[in-house]
Design a protein that fits this description.
Number of strands: 9
Distance between the termini: 52 Å
Largest sheet: 5 strands, mixed
Oligomer: single chain
Helix content: 10-25%
Strand content: 25-35%
Shape: globular
Order of helices and strands: EHEEEEHEEEEH
Number of helices: 3
Strand order of the largest sheet: 5-8-7-6-9
Radius of gyration: 17 Å
């Protein structure tokens, strides 16, 4: 039996997060990152997107209102990765985060992408990144991807912001 292969056009469409407080989550995802509300379900859920899509991120308190993040050493979501279309827009997001005084957990140049890491107010990992053109991805002598975790120059990235 062969291993199934998904079509190259397959994408992860959205992430739905359990949060303790909708307004606190909105202050981060809308107020700092810039997602727009597409729909609310009373005080228990909100759907957010970039560019009018039905939703990229949903926040709900159905099973988590007032809850605490999972303890370290438990299973669960490592992070949600949000892909930006270019370096300028990633730099703009970084600038908003810095201006808001929001803490970063890390930043890396992976060769294939540039990434910024942080946690949302509920402790969920968030990666903000932009991909390099596949023609520029680092490869070994056999043509296999050779990703790295090098230092990302945050000052240079912010210099490209609007």
């Amino acid at each position: 039996m062969s291993t199934p292969v998904l079509p190259a056009e397959t994408r992860i469409g959205h992430v739905h997060l359990k949060v303790a407080d909708i307004d606190r989550g909105l202050a981060f995802y809308q107020g700092i990152l810039g997602f727009e509300i597409t729909q609310r379900y009373g005080s228990q859920a909100v759907f957010l997107s970039a560019g009018g899509y039905h939703h990229h991120i949903a926040l709900n308190t159905w099973e988590s209102k007032g809850g605490k993040p999972p303890a370290p050493g438990t299973t669960g979501l490592y992070h949600t990765a949000i892909l930006f279309p270019d370096r300028k827009s990633l730099g703009s997001a970084l600038k908003r985060i810095v201006n808001a005084g929001y803490p970063l957990e890390g930043a890396s140049d992976h060769g294939v992408s540039e990434a910024i890491y942080l946690r949302d107010p509920d402790g969920n990992g968030v990666e903000l990144y932009r991909d390099r053109d596949p023609a520029d991805w680092p490869r070994d002598a056999s043509g296999n991807l050779k990703m790295t975790s090098d230092r990302l120059d945050l000052h240079a990235l912010m210099a490209e912001a609007d």
